[in-house]
Amino acid sequence: MDQRLANAWRMTVNEKKFIETALLSDLRVDGRRPFDYRRITIKFGSKDGSSEVQLGETHVMGYVTSQLVQPYRDRPNEGTLSIFTEFSPMADPTFEAGRPGESAIELGRVIDRGLRESRAVDMESLCVIAGKSVWAVRVDIHILDNGGNLIDAANIAALAALLTFRRPECTLGGENSQDVIVHDPEVREPLPLTIHHLPVAVTFAFFGEGNIMVIDPTHKEEAVMGGRMTATLNSNGDICAVQKGGGEGVISSVVMQCLRIASIKAADITSKIKNAVDAYDTERALRKVKRHPSSVAQKVSVPDVIMKESQLDEFIRQKAQMVTEEPGVESMGTESLSCKRDANSIGRAFTGGPSNWDPYSKSISMTSVRAQTSTGPMAIKREHEAMDIQKPIESNPDGRTIPDASGSSIVDGSGVGQQSNTPKSLKDAVKVKSKKKTKESSTAM
């Protein structure tokens, strides 16, 4: 204890007189005006519910946690909110490690009174089962560096942490629907706290028997001041709490002047907190967006389509070349392949429907229809052979051929050809050939 007090910082008499003389001239050691705040910087951690506030040289960190507990008997349908402070000797040599001192207890009570007594946080929304299970919210405030005005910095850190905190969503299950099921944040999105307003603490320091007052005192000014007053107000100007510390008294007119100034400062600080929280929420929403690279879709679809088109063009070119090499079937092969390509192109755009084409109409051979559905020069060759069989060329005894209107020749018993419109089948053509062979054999004998 003695060693800790020996290492404590002490202000000399000359330094105290210099600060008091400067305040009489409305000047401060750091160059500010009497009612000017130091620069406020608000940062957030990687997890929800953690904040870090820097007010000049004062550095404070806030962290919010929650757990399910049994509610109080007098308030069975309300959750709980508690404030805990930790003063580390690293922040100030006068702070004692292990147990909270008077300054730590006072800091926790001022912040707790401003948040809990003003009903800033909706406690009824923290109830899960009335009289059995509610959420207990805990705010831990860690002092990292003491540069003066710890109450204002800790209050801002607590508000920023509460605004970004998300508690897990829970539902009721079981046989009697009385079992609480806490869902993982990856399964269900956590829920934010319901906060009605933001009570902001504004601290004033009094010098020279209360005749001089300044806002946001530094560590050196706190060592010289005779008294301190902390007013907690929201942006609407509602007074949430007032804390008077120090032995120096303050008249009522000075108190009312402090409240008017605190109302303006509270609105300014509230806007800064909301802007920082909005930026954090936007960044948090962007982190949760799942983006798929465009290269994945290209690997799946594009090369496959290109390869199919190239294979189709190469296939048609090869078939056309093979057909043109066959003698006597150049025109028919080219026409057949062109019809196939047109049919393929139409088939890709045509969705379906009945066809008006009748394969059994007049002067259309079923063999040609089958040849169009098949591919290759062998199918075309077989088609021509079948056509030769269907259309036999007969000769009369004089050696002349008599074709009929349908392309076939008929020879009667007297050697005179007669035309017939009835198409001949394959059976008739075979019989005529057999008769011809019989006549030729008898003549030779």
TrEMBL record:
It comes from the Eukaryota. Residues 37-168, 197-263 form the Exoribonuclease phosphorolytic domain. This is Protein ECERIFERUM 7. Its main location: cytoplasm. CDD domains: RNase_PH_RRP45. GO terms for cellular component: cytoplasmic exosome (RNase complex); nuclear exosome (RNase complex). Residues 392-445 are annotated as: Disordered.
